[in-house]
Design goal:
The complex is a heterodimer of chains A (about 375) and B (about 350). Chain A has about 375 residues and is mainly alpha-helical. Chain A is built from 17 helices and 4 strands. Chain B is built from 16 helices and no strands. Chain B has about 350 residues and is an all-alpha fold. Chain B starts with a helix and ends with a helix. In chain B, helix 13 (about 260-280) packs across helix 16. In chain B, about 75% of the residues lie in helices and about 0% in strands. Chain B has helices spanning about 5-10, 20-45, 50-55, 70-75, 85-115, 120-140, 145-160, 175-180, 190-200, 210-230, 235-245, 250-260, 260-280, 280-285, 295-300, 310-345. Chain B folds into 3 domains: about 15-70, no CATH class; about 85-115 and about 170-305 and about 320-340, Orthogonal Bundle (MetI-like fold); about 120-170. The chains are: A mainly alpha (about 375), B mainly alpha (about 350).
Chain lengths: ~375, ~350
């Protein structure tokens, strides 16, 4: 009796550890541990041998191959000389960055760490934008998987956010059957992306799909979106948008509904127009929610693999191949270390973009919340 | 007052004019159509004969074409299809992993709200250092992993109980919570190759165990995050009274906290269930034939004879019906569960 009592007491004293340890251990095993192993894998050449795997350290060769070597066309795409449009966009970007730095140096909270951070963000964004421009706006340039993924993420998130916000603004008014609409909008979010990919393959079939009469009327039944790079990319992006606009919509609607109405009523009394109300009252108070969901979507969007894999199999060529898919294709051809290297670069880019986004909008949110 | 003014006139703040509300209904209706139409199209395709599909688009059964259940019969009756196995695999794996995730995740979420942790920065640094050393020793020196594991653990424990007491700098509960949620930013592709090698070494590739562990691991951050916010809203008085009466933490958790948080628990359970049900990438790497799940099965149906849309539609329907049912009945709960993190964060 005394024995069991003491065991119980001891167990009770250990309660804090018992409660949190399982979760911490599992997350550790599946994040820190694989991250370190993955780094080793990407720095070596792996071979499957009888009863296990043999690793040989080769340094940064895998990364070199992707960035400068034989796989460069696949990861970074094909380069060309910048055109006039490219130069114009680049100079606008540089001016914006300079203004950003100027305002930071003029402000009170100026520190060395902040300066270095901003410098890193500016340089990284400069190179990513440069890469995108020489891939996409030049006659001979072709995008590699990095730029394709960035296109999916950035264009996709902007597009989804715009439509989601528009629908939410419409729905926040007192409309009959609102809960019906919300329920319907909720459905696409719950369907597996693989299913969605096949759904959209069926729907976009030019001769047997439901839109075939429209296609026929336009006289385009001979062409196929699947062989045009941008057609295929847009098809993938539409599938992604179909699934994720509802998420944007539901979160933004909840955010809009939780806003206090007094300010708005006062503004209407003062005769403010609806655009003015949106710009001065709704947008600033909604900004924290907006930043949060855009961040969530950015994080998830970088993982896109199912849609391009099923809809286009990465093709035509590598036109719709995302970084995750690139990594998977490498893995399928038994190039484990190449796959790990692509995965690592994907992680670096994803973390960089998410952190840059946070650092760019942090100031705005702080101003808005005051 | 002309008609135009009458239509666009506003009656009060909340009311919108007739024109405005017609416009909003129109846009909402269009969007609802966009959401539902693809699902309707799969449903229709699943009852079409192959030659009907190949002849071009037909929209309404009984009017445009004669529906038949041949695809459904084929998928369920034909031995070679073997639909039921992936289906049951998916059901079993998602149910078990959703349950375990909920249990572990809600325990951690509760602990992060009610217990104050002070993990020392030095201990964490030491842990990571030992881990890197261990991996180096195993991969470069070729030492046996069991030996390295035991000695590494021993050194780490020794360090915690002796040297680490001299250092004061530590982190708080918020840091632990942030660390957990930040795991979502890791692309699964980075993680999956080491996990694959790990499972291969343990010899559990393509088993239920491997799938369940993986799903639990990737979904725990979400559960911790959602349940933590939920437990914040539960009043602390009841628990304090119970603690005064001498109840242990486990007793308080199982008899007071869990029953009080049933809505949050069920919403989170459903959300995790759906996430597991739809998971594609990880199962693509880890499962082969024995534990093949439905998303994999659909993805592998693109045969050499071209896509057989009629069979595929049936399987897509099988796949999305449970999810849509859950979504329809529990959407209020799930939406609330989803929003907690986003709105407060």
């Amino acid at each position: 009796m005394t024995q069991s009592n003491s065991i119980e007491e001891r167990l009770d004293r250990q309660a804090p550890a018992v409660f949190i340890m399982p979760a911490v251990l599992i997350v550790l095993c599946f994040s820190i541990f694989p991250l370190i192993v993955s780094l080793f894998v990407s720095l070596s050449r792996l071979k499957f041998v009888r009863g296990g795997i043999e690793a040989k350290y080769i340094g940064f060769l895998n990364f070199k191959k992707l960035l400068f070597g034989s796989q460069q066309y696949h990861f970074l795409g094909k380069f060309d000389q910048l055109t006039t449009t490219g130069y114009v966009i680049m100079s606008v970007f540089v001016i914006l960055i300079l203004v950003w730095f100027y305002r930071y140096f003029r402000s009170i909270n100026f520190s060395l760490v902040g300066t270095i951070g901003r410098f890193v963000v500016a340089t990284g964004l400069f190179f990513l934008l440069m890469l995108t421009l020489i891939n996409l706006t030049t006659p001979k340039g072709l995008p590699g998987t990095l730029v394709v993924t960035l296109t999916y993420v950035i264009l996709g998130v902007i597009f989804q956010f715009q439509i989601g916000l528009g629908l939410a603004l419409l729905c926040v008014k007192k409309i009959r059957g609102r809960s019906f609409f919300r329920m319907v909008f909720f459905i696409p979010m719950m369907i597996t992306p693989v299913g969605i990919a096949y759904l959209f393959r069926m729907l976009t079939d030019m001769t047997k799909g439901p839109f075939a009469p429209v296609v026929m009327w336009l006289g385009m039944e001979e062409t196929s979106w699947a062989v045009i790079p941008w057609g295929a990319r847009i098809a993938v992006m539409i599938g992604d948008a179909w699934q994720w606009i509802p998420f944007m919509f539901i979160v933004l609607l909840a955010g809009l509904e939780s806003l206090p109405t007094e300010q708005k009523e006062a503004a209407i009394m003062d005769g403010a127009g609806s655009w003015q109300i949106f710009r001065d009252i709704t947008w600033p108070t909604l900004l924290p929610v907006i930043v949060t969901i855009i961040l969530i979507r950015l994080i998830e969007a970088f993982k896109i693999i199912d849609l391009p894999n099923v809809m286009t199999n990465g093709g035509p060529g590598i036109a719709t191949e995302s970084l995750s898919l690139h990594s998977y294709f490498n893995w399928r051809t038994m190039d484990l270390s190449g796959s790990a290297a692509v995965g690592y670069l994907l992680m670096v880019v994803a973390v960089f973009i998410c952190l840059s986004f946070v650092s760019l909008v942090k100031k705005q949110v702080e101003i808005a919340q005051q | 007052m002309n008609i135009w003014q009458q239509i666009t006139k506003k009656r009060s703040f909340e009311d919108s004019s007739v024109l405005e509300s017609i416009l909003s209904y129109l846009i909402l209706g269009i969007w609802a159509f966009i959401c539902i139409f693809p699902i309707y199209w799969v449903l229709v395709t699943s009852v079409k004969e192959p030659h009907v599909v190949n002849q071009g688009p037909f929209y309404i059964p009984f009017v445009d074409f004669q529906p038949s259940l041949h695809a459904w019969e084929f998928v369920f009756m034909q031995e070679s299809m073997n639909t039921l196995r992936p289906f049951f695999n998916t059901v079993i794996i998602s149910l078990i992993s959703a349950f375990i995730t909920l249990l572990i995740g809600s325990m951690a979420g509760y602990a992060l709200v009610r217990i104050h942790y002070r993990p020392k920065i030095v201990s964490i640094a030491c842990f990571i250092l030992i881990l890197i050393l261990a991996i180096l020793l195993i991969t470069r020196m070729g030492l046996d992993w069991r030996m390295v594991l035991t000695s590494g653990t021993a050194i780490f424990l020794l360090f915690i109980f002796t040297l680490s007491r001299r250092f004061k700098a530590s982190l708080g509960n918020n840091d632990i919570g942030f660390w957990m949620i930040s795991q979502r930013i890791l692309p699964p592709v980075v993680v999956v190759i080491p996990v694959y090698i790990f499972y291969q070494q343990l010899g559990i590739l393509d088993t239920y165990l491997a799938m369940v562990i993986t799903y639990v691991a990737i979904n725990i951050p979400i559960v911790v995050w959602l349940m933590r916010d939920f437990f914040f809203s539960i009043p602390v008085d009841l628990e304090e009274n119970a603690a005064l009466d001498g109840a242990s933490r486990y007793r308080i958790f199982t008899t007071i906290v869990l029953p009080l948080s049933k809505p949050g628990l069920s919403a989170t359970f459903m959300l995790v269930l759906i996430l597991c049900w739809n998971e594609y990438l990880l199962s693509l790497f880890i499962s082969m034939t024995d534990t093949q799940t439905l998303p994999l099965m659909i993805a592998s149906m693109n045969t050499t004879r071209g896509p057989q849309w009629w069979y595929m539609s049936v399987i897509i329907i099988l796949m999305i019906i449970p999810v849509i049912l859950i979504a329809l009945f529990l959407y209020r709960f799930i939406v609330r569960g989803l929003l907690v993190g986003a709105i407060k964060g």
